[in-house]
């Protein structure tokens, strides 16, 4: 397996480790990027607890909250270039699809694609996307969507970076007064701190075991005695939970408070028990590798379009 400079650069970007360490890890992992990350972590050379995806695809993430705040949705609409992502018609399509997702009964993308398009009932969602592809000369796809509903409580949203990150949060509470402020803070937290799970109960057991093995190998590599290794492993697992579980994360506005404590304080202040029930965080293009276009060819493509 030939280890290219591009692979080394990507691994360095994802882990923060040195170039030579990245090259050695990739060689040991025979080019497997995820395995190389594990190797670097075991050696204590990469601190990342989260599995970062390659974010390269263009497009937009968009949200829509139905009046009353009881239903909301978030969608990701992809395209090939940033040029098209800034096109008014593409932006309008993304907004319409977010509204469609919120009002739809569909649970899967394929189902929603066959529905009548909310902005023109003479065509389906699939046909609306196809028509814009033909007009702008660039491939597009509705990649995913998430919809939340709540009876007693509130759905809130937040969009960051002009459509780069979109967050949807579902809070449950008997009283709605003051709930919007709490929901906004939780949405900001999700956008900034990128939690992977609501709380530790949602972390798969196999993920925990994988983390433990990495921490155990780190301790061995550090030359720690056997009798203290398990204590170190347990301590590092607790730290992992604080990094990836929303309710255990330090609140971005006050690091002395966890999100769980922040919500508990707000529940007492507002006189109603507040529960963070669900959240969704979509980052444009996460996990998608975009093919590298020649710049001149890309400009010519846009000119022809």
TrEMBL record:
Keyword Protein biosynthesis in record: yes
Keyword Protease: no
UniProt keyword annotations, A-Z: Cytoplasm, Elongation factor, Protein biosynthesis
Chain residue ranges for the region called Involved in Mg(2+) ion dislocation from EF-Tu: 81-84
Subcellular location per the Swiss-Prot or TrEMBL entry: Cytoplasm
Major site of localization recorded for this protein: cytoplasm
Name of one Pfam family that matches: EF_TS
Family: Belongs to the EF-Ts family.
Protein name from the UniProt record: Elongation factor Ts
Gene3D superfamilies: 1.10.286.20, DNA helicase RuvA subunit, C-terminal domain (1.10.8.10), Elongation factor Ts, dimerisation domain (3.30.479.20)
GO MF, one annotated term: translation elongation factor activity
Transmembrane segments: none
Protein source organism: Fervidicella metallireducens AeB
PANTHER family xref list: ELONGATION FACTOR TS, ELONGATION FACTOR TS, MITOCHONDRIAL
PROSITE patterns the record matches: EF_TS_1, EF_TS_2
Cellular component terms per the entry's GO annotation: cytoplasm
Translation elongation factor EFTs/EF1B dimerisation domain sequence ranges: 72-286
Function: Associates with the EF-Tu.GDP complex and induces the exchange of GDP to GTP. It remains bound to the aminoacyl-tRNA.EF-Tu.GTP complex up to the GTP hydrolysis stage on the ribosome.
């Amino acid at each position: 397996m030939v280890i290219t400079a591009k692979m080394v650069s990507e691994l360095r970007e994802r882990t923060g480790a040195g170039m030579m360490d990245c090259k050695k890890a990739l060689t040991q992992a025979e080019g497997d990027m995820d395995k190389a990350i594990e190797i670097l972590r075991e050696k204590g050379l990469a601190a990342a607890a989260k599995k970062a995806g390659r974010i390269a695809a263009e497009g937009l993430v968009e949200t829509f909250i139905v009046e009353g705040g009881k239903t909301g949705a978030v969608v990701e609409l992809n395209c090939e270039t940033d040029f098209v992502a800034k096109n008014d018609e593409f932006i309008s399509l993304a907004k319409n699809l977010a509204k469609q997702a919120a009002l739809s009964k569909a649970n899967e993308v394929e189902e929603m694609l066959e529905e009548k398009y909310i902005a023109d009932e003479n065509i389906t969602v699939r046909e609306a996307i196809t028509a814009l592809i033909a007009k702008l000369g660039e491939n597009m796809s509705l990649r995913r969507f998430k919809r939340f509903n709540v009876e007693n409580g509130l759905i809130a949203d937040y969009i960051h970076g002009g459509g780069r990150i979109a967050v949807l949060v579902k809070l449950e509470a008997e009283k709605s007064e003051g709930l919007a402020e709490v929901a906004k803070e939780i949405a900001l937290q999700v956008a900034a701190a990128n939690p992977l799970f609501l709380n530790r109960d949602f972390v798969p057991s196999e993920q925990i075991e994988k983390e433990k093995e990495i921490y155990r190998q780190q301790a061995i590599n550090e030359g720690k005695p056997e009798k203290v290794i398990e204590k170190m492993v347990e301590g590092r697992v607790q730290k992992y939970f604080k990094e990836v579980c929303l309710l255990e994360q330090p609140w971005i506005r006050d690091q002395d408070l966890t999100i769980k404590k922040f919500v508990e304080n707000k529940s007492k202040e507002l006189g109603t028990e507040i529960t963070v029930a669900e959240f969704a965080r979509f980052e444009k293009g996460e996990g998608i590798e975009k093919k590298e276009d020649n710049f001149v060819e890309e400009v010519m493509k846009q000119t022809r379009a």
